[in-house]
Specification:
By secondary structure, the chain is α+β, with helices and mostly antiparallel strands. The chain is built from three helices and five strands, in the order ααβαββββ. Strands 1, 2, 3, 4 and 5 form a five-stranded mixed sheet that branches. The protein is globular, with a radius of gyration of 17 Å.
């Protein structure tokens, strides 16, 4: 008898599964300006409809305690995380553009390095250089 992988167990059970993140939507006082910031500061090359083709790679979906300070402001309910090739270069680029970049970075063995920037509307964004 062949052992079924977790993926095959879902399929064998007949349950549909999501395929990946299909979008991330955020409110903005000035949507055009905030979209331009993500394009100009982070290089997010979405088209006029917001369609973006990111490179293949891991995606984390995690739930955290409601009292966490990890997102920065307690008013922020979610946090966007972008994978980056070179965290130090990205943080330097953001600082050169005058972005609000956290001084500290964090490393998790086997996971990678993390840094944070706050966008012009006060949303903390995490940057992740996978291990």
């Amino acid at each position: 008898m062949e052992l079924l992988s977790d993926r095959n167990l879902w399929q064998a059970g007949g349950m549909e599964r999501v395929l990946g993140i299909g979008g991330y939507f955020m409110r903005a006082a000035d949507p055009a300006a905030l979209g331009a910031w993500y394009r100009d500061a982070l290089g997010l090359d979405a088209d006029e409809h917001g369609l973006w083709h990111p490179e293949d790679g891991p995606t984390v979906f995690a739930t955290l305690e409601s009292e966490t300070d990890y997102f920065g402001s307690r008013a922020q309910q979610t946090m966007l995380n972008f994978r980056v090739r070179d965290l130090d270069a990205m943080l330097a680029q953001l600082r050169a553009k005058g972005a609000d970049v956290a001084e500290e970075t964090q490393e998790m063995e086997g996971v990678g390095r993390f840094g944070w920037v706050t966008d012009p509307e006060g949303n903390r964004v995490e940057l992740w250089q996978p291990a």
